[in-house]
Amino acid sequence: MDLERLELELRHRTPWEAMDLGLPWLRRWCGPVYRAWFATFIPFNLLLFLALWRWPLVAAMIAWWCKPLFDRVLLKVYAEAVFGQPPGLGTVWRALPDLCRRTGLVAALTWGRGDMARSFHLPVHQLERQRGKAAQARRKVLGYKARGCAFWLTFLCSNFSACLQISIILLLELLWPSEAPAVFDWQALFHGDSGLWESLLSHLAWVFGESLVEPFYVAAGFVLYLNRRNDLEGWDIELGFRQLSRRVAAERRGPGLGRAAGLAGWGLAGLLLAQYPPDGHAAEPTAASGPEVPPSPAKQAIQAVLADPVFGHKVEDWEWRKRDPDGVAPARRKTADFSWLHTILGWIAEGIRLSGYVAAAVLAGGFGVLLYRYRGMWPGRAPKTRIVPSTLFGLDVRPDALPEDIALAAGRLLDAGSVLPALSLLYRGALVALIHGHGVDFLPGDTEGECRTRVRGRIDHEAEAYFAGLLETWTLVAYAHATPPPERLRALCADWPHHFGRIAT
C-alpha cells in the first residue's frame, strides 16, 4: 500500500471520530459513489419489483437481503477514490463478476447476513481477500477496540433508514388531499395485504432511505477499518519517518562549499568581537585580573555569629500543606449547602421503613390465610365431616333414587327413543359412583369441563376416558340438541358397568 498517495491524514483517532469522517468522504466523492449506486442498486430493485409485482413483500425482502452485494460496489469506489483515482461506471460494471466471486459474497448472504459489524469487516474479505480461520483471526484483531462502535453504527443506520422510510410515507400522507381516499392502509401494509401502488410507494420510500444511509454506512465502516490498521501498523509513524529521511537526504545533497564559507565568516566575526569588547565593560576586571578582595568587617562579624552553636544551627521540619502551585493559599470556599439532600434521603428512608412494615403485614396476613385454609391438616385435629350433596346441577344424585341396574334401564330408554333421559341416567350414576366410591367433591356451580378436571387422577385411565366420552356425548345432546350415532350410545350403555356398575349399585 502506497501510504503517500492516501488522501487521508494519518493520525490517531478515536473510533467515533473515525466514523464521523465517513460523512466528509461521502460529500467529497458523492459523484462517483452515487453514480455507481444508481447504476447498480436502482436497476436491481426495478427489475426485481417488475418480476415479483404480484408478491411485493417478497421483492422487498430479497432487495434487503442482497444489500451486501451493493456494499461491495460502494467499497470499491471508496477504496480507489482514497488513492485519488475514483473508478468510472465502466470499471464498476466490469468489476461486478469479481465482486460476486472473490469477496466472500456467498457467506455474506447466508450465515454472515446477520453480522452487525458488516461494513467494518467488509474490507477484510474484499480488500485483504482473507478467508476462513484467517479472516476470523483478522476480524478478531481488528475488532479488539472497534467492534462495539461498528455494532452501534449498523444498529443506528438500520433504524435511521427505517425512520426515513416511514417519514417519507407520512409526508406523502400529509400532502395528500383530505377529500381523496387515503393513500396508505397502514394495517394492510404491515400485514402484507396492501395493494400494488401502496407496495410500490412503500418500496420506493425504502430505496430512497437506503440511498441516503447506505453510502455513509459503508464509508464510516471503511474509515473505521483504516483507523484501526493505522493504530496497529503505525502508518502515521512510518510516513513521518519517510518524510524525515527525505529531508535529511536533501540537506546532505546541499551546497557544501557555501555552508563552509558561511561558517568561516561567522567564526571571523566572533574573533573580532572578542578583541574589542563594549565600552561599558572595558574597565571591569576579570576573575583572574587581580588579587582577591578580603571580606568586610561586617560580613566577618555575621559569619562569626552564625558559626556559634547557639545561633547558627539548622533544623529540618516537615508539615502537611495543601498544594498551591502559585504559592498563594487559596481563599476558603464557602461550603455548599446540602440540607435539601439530607431531607430527600430522610424521606426515602421513611418510605423504605413504611414499605417494610407493609410487606411484613402482607406476609403475616398471607401466612394466616394459609394456616386457616389448611387447618384440617393440623396434627391432632379431628377430620372434617364430609357433606355429601343430594343434588348437583339440577340432577338427583342420591343413590336410592337410581335403579338397581343403571345400564339396563338406560338401554330400555334408548329403545324407547329417549336419548337425553338415558344419558342423564348414565351421567347421574357416574356422579354417584364418583362421590360415594372415590370421594370426589363436586361444587354446585361446576361445569362439565370442571367435573372432568376434578376427576382427573382420582380414577384409572380407562374410567377417566369413559367419563370424558360420556360428558362429551351429554353436552352434545343437552346443549347442541344433536343425536349421536346409535352405536356410540349403545357402547356407553354397555361399558358403564365395567367402570361404575359395582359402586353405583
From TrEMBL:
This is Protein-glutamine gamma-glutamyltransferase-like C-terminal domain-containing protein. Residues 426-496 form the Protein-glutamine gamma-glutamyltransferase-like C-terminal domain. It comes from the Bacteria. The lineage of its organism: Bacteria, Pseudomonadati, Pseudomonadota, Gammaproteobacteria, Methylococcales. The chain crosses the membrane at residues 34-53, 149-172, 204-226, 256-276, 354-374. It holds the Pfam family DUF4129. Coiled coil: none annotated. It comes from Methylomagnum ishizawai. InterPro entries: TgpA-like_C.
